[in-house]
Design goal:
Rossmann fold; alpha/beta; 7 strands
């Protein structure tokens, strides 16, 4: 059994991943803003550095895997677009770059990054924002996002997840990752009923204006926690099956994938492998 780092471990898909990995006998170092082995604010450079260092210390310099599930959704707020970019992109890329030597020190380490199917379902996402975030330039991305007014958080979220998928696919097959024996993949869930989505649905049902926002925002009005079917039909445990499978030897030959999961494409039986191996 191995040692895994999991961001966003206190709730939602991160918590479900922790339960699965611990159930399979692994040791997990959870990272979150509260109620975690490592408490840190991934929206700040200092918080990201502190979290990365604390994980390395607790892991003894060797990580068998990592699951990056921390993220912020498109809720309202003056600085929300910046926070989304910092947590969803830099909270992943900077953490992984800091942990890469520890992952390389393990035998065939596995990394799973949670992206989103918003990479293909949200229209009109500015390409310049995606490119800026993929390059780690949050300031340049935010300058463009400010021009979008109240729609900025929605587009910031979609752009952040698209940039993340691009980063994974570009880096996964390089000598620094695949060449060092580190398997790097992304999952792209649909609408999963987690605390992040519940926050969005509360905002949508309060009557937030739809004008200028993608249709997905309007459909959130029909989304209810506990609904067994419908637009947000998957529970957090279902994408966890794929995360566990990609954290095992099951997907040993699939670096650089960005696999959709959720709604009608919730993990099939083939993704239900355990994370042993």
């Amino acid at each position: 059994m191995g040692t895994y780092a999991v961001t966003g471990s206190a709730s939602g898909m991160g918590a479900a991943v922790v339960d699965r990995l611990v159930g399979d006998g692994h040791r997990v170092i959870g990272i979150d803003i509260q109620q975690a082995d490592v408490t840190a604010d991934l929206s700040t450079p200092a918080g990201r550095r502190a979290a990365a260092a604390a994980v390395l210390e607790k892991a003894g310099g060797v990580l068998d895997g990592a699951v990056l599930a921390a993220g912020l959704g498109p809720a309202p707020g003056r600085d929300r677009a910046r926070l989304i970019a910092e947590v969803n992109v830099l909270g992943v890329t900077e953490s992984l770059e800091a942990w890469r030597p520890a992952l390389a020190a393990a035998d065939r380490a596995k990394v799973v990054v949670f992206a989103s199917n918003s990479t293909t379902t949200v229209p009109l996402v500015p390409g310049r924002v995606v490119r800026a975030l993929a390059e780690g330039d949050v300031e340049r991305a935010v300058r463009t996002l400010r021009l979008l007014g109240k729609a900025a958080p929605t587009f910031a979220y979609a752009a952040s997840k698209t940039a993340l998928a691009h980063w994974v696919r570009r880096n996964a097959v390089t000598p620094a990752w695949a060449g060092a024996g580190i398997r790097l993949n992304a999952l792209a869930p649909g609408a999963i009923m987690t605390p992040l989505l519940e926050q969005q649905t509360r905002h949508a049902r309060r009557g937030a204006p739809d004008q200028g926002l993608p249709g997905a925002h309007r459909r959130l009005r029909r989304c209810r926690p506990g609904s067994p079917r419908g637009w947000c039909s998957c529970s957090p445990t279902r994408p966890t099956s794929c995360a566990a499978a990609w954290s095992s030897s099951t997907a040993a030959r699939t670096p650089g994938s960005a696999q959709p999961t959720g709604r009608a494409r919730c993990p099939p039986a083939g993704c239900a492998a355990t994370s042993r191996g």
